[in-house]
């Protein structure tokens, strides 16, 4: 649960942030990404984005950065955000954290030095947890688009757009047993990663609670690329499926090696699987896999199509759920500013549990007292080499 004590640092930090904005002047506007500089009579609201744009997890951070830029352009083109008598245009300063805890702290300090009014990040759970106490001490609103570990929203000022690890782990177990009819499931998880272990624990507990059986629970470590030992153990069981609560890089290796071993088990995944079709050399290795995700670019929806088209035009790519999460994060800042009638973090934080956001990852996203987004967990299937929502 969150520490619900209010603290004066919010207001102080907000005043300092506004002062820093004034001091930075045109220099900040020139450096900010994702929007044009504010015109005469307008002010800039600077979003400090933090995530990996280099390294093994670069796909996630790049998607978040680009999804935010689409929302920023959309809002700015529509006239910006009216708060009292002032109109604000959004700008984005995005710092690379390489999905590293140490680099995340450096990136946070960088965007704060630029005068950030709110923090979008971090993208990965470990990096997000590394800065969460510092953002609390600084009293700045923090919304992570995709940091799903419980520790990412440990404090009053921190919120998330994505599902929590326990939430989606439990939901996948329910779906596997109740909808897919699976009873005997093996698990391969990263023992060194908060995201993976949080999902693994919740999934295994729910499978057992519903009368299913975890026939094998095999661990690996970050940067492992050989999974023959884990797969051999699972092959010797009567498993009907393998749940891999991990990122798409790990899923790429595991599914390929399983196929090479002649294994044809159903694969289940978490939202970190989104993007896996871009990393596999043979799409058949993930054909039929099902993973939890709040967004699917192929869904027949006018707003989704508009977002997908804008993203494709700007980046010559199809947005994934990380891009969609970031898009919704920007609209969350907008809603909080409008509800608060202020850009001070203390006021926006107070407003967060009062807003409703209609976005790419939910029609009516709200936030509970813990800072978690309240929305439906959905499931995506890879079918004929493409993503589609899984029919229930």
Describe it.
The chain is α/β, with parallel strands linked by helices and 392 residues long. It has two domains: 9-163 and 301-374, 3-Layer(aba) Sandwich (Rossmann fold); 165-293, Response regulator (Rossmann fold, 3-Layer(aba) Sandwich). It has helices at residues 9-24, 26-31, 58-77, 101-113, 125-138, 165-179, 194-209, 228-235, 248-260, 302-315, 321-340, 345-351, and strands at residues 42-51, 81-83, 86-96, 118-120, 142-144, 158-160, 184-190, 213-220, 241-244, 266-269, 290-292, 366-367, 373-374, 379-383, 386-389. A seven-stranded mixed beta sheet has the order 8-7-9-10-11-14-15, with helices on both faces. It has a six-stranded mixed beta sheet with strand order 2-3-1-4-5-6, sandwiched between helices. A hairpin with a 2-residue loop joins strand 2 and strand 3. Helix 3 (58-77) crosses helix 11 and helix 6 (165-179) runs parallel beside helix 7. Belongs to the leucine-binding protein family. Residues 1-22 form the signal peptide. This is Branched-chain amino acid transport system substrate-binding protein.
């Amino acid at each position: 649960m969150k520490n619900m004590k209010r603290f004066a640092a919010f207001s102080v930090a907000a005043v300092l942030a506004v002062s820093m904005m004034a001091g930075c002047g045109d220099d900040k506007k020139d450096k900010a990404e994702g929007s044009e500089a504010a015109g005469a009579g307008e002010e800039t609201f600077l979003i400090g984005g933090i995530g990996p744009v280099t390294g093994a997890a670069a796909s996630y951070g790049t998607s978040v950065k680009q999804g935010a830029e689409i929302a920023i352009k959309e809002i700015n083109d529509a006239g910006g955000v009216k708060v009292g008598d002032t109109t604000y245009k959004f700008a984005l300063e995005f710092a690379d954290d390489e999905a590293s805890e140490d680099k995340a702290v450096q990136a946070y300090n960088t965007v704060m030095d630029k005068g950030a009014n709110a923090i979008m990040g971090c993208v990965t759970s470990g990096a997000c947890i590394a800065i969460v106490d510092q953002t609390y001490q600084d009293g700045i609103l923090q919304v992570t688009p995709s940091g799903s570990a419980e520790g990412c929203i440990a404090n009053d000022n921190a919120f998330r757009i994505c599902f929590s690890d326990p939430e989606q782990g439990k939901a996948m177990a329910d779906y596997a047993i109740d909808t897919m009819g699976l009873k005997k499931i093996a698990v391969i998880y990263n023992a060194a990663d908060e995201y993976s272990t949080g999902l693994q624990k919740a999934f295994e507990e729910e499978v057992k609670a519903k009368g299913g059986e975890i026939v094998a629970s095999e661990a690996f470590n970050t940067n492992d690329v050989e999974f023959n030992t884990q797969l051999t153990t699972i092959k010797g069981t009567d498993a009907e499926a393998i749940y891999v609560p991990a990122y798409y890089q790990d899923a790429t290796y595991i599914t390929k090696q399983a196929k090479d071993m002649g294994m044809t088990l159903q694969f289940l995944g978490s939202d970190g699987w989104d993007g896996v079709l871009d990393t596999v050399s043979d799409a058949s290795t993930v054909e039929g896999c099902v993973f939890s995700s709040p967004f699917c670019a192929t869904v027949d929806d006018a707003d989704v199509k508009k977002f997908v088209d804008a993203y494709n035009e700007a980046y010559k790519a199809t947005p994934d759920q990380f891009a969609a999460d970031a898009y919704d994060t920007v609209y969350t800042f907008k809603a909080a500013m409008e509800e608060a009638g202020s850009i001070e973090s203390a006021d926006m934080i107070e407003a967060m549990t009062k807003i409703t956001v209609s976005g790419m990852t939910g029609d009516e996203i709200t936030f509970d007292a813990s800072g978690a987004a309240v929305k439906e967990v959905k499931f995506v299937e890879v079918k004929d080499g493409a993503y589609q929502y899984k029919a229930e």
